[in-house]
Task: inverse folding
């Protein structure tokens, strides 16, 4: 794993991030989703090793809680430890912002993400019915939580 750095997401990176999002997901976030998150003041991050993009994340805060909305590692860099390392940085960011709990949603079909979050200590906190678009209708979301 090459050394990587986390930095605030930049407007100039959105085209690259949206391209990566489209390669990773069948139902990707749009450029507008990312731009709106930045405009709303959410914590939006890029993970890079030098110039190349490795991943990105979007996290929203409310009193005492951090809600991880998107954590993605580009396809070519997956399964190299970047997701776990990035998640640790995001957890520390949430603690530093005063969050006592971190929440997220994950597709039941996303085994790799479920394993990543489970290894980090996230546990089931509920189900959001028909949360995600899916090829044949909608897919539930597993809600996961981590006490910080």
Result:
């Amino acid at each position: 794993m090459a050394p990587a750095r986390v930095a605030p997401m930049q407007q100039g990176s959105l085209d690259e991030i949206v391209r990566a999002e489209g390669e990773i997901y069948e139902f990707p976030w749009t450029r507008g989703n990312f731009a709106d998150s930045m405009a709303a003041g959410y914590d939006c991050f890029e993970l890079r090793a030098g110039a190349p993009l490795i991943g990105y994340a979007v996290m929203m805060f409310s009193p005492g809680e951090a809600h991880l909305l998107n954590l993605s590692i580009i396809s070519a860099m997956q399964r190299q430890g970047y997701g776990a390392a990035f998640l640790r940085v995001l957890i520390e960011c949430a603690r530093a912002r005063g969050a006592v709990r971190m929440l997220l949603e994950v597709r039941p079909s996303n085994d790799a993400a479920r394993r990543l979050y489970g290894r980090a200590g996230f546990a089931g906190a509920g189900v959001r019915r028909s949360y995600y678009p899916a090829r044949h209708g909608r897919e539930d979301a597993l809600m996961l939580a981590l006490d910080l």
Notes: The helical segments are 14-24, 31-39, 82-96, 111-119.
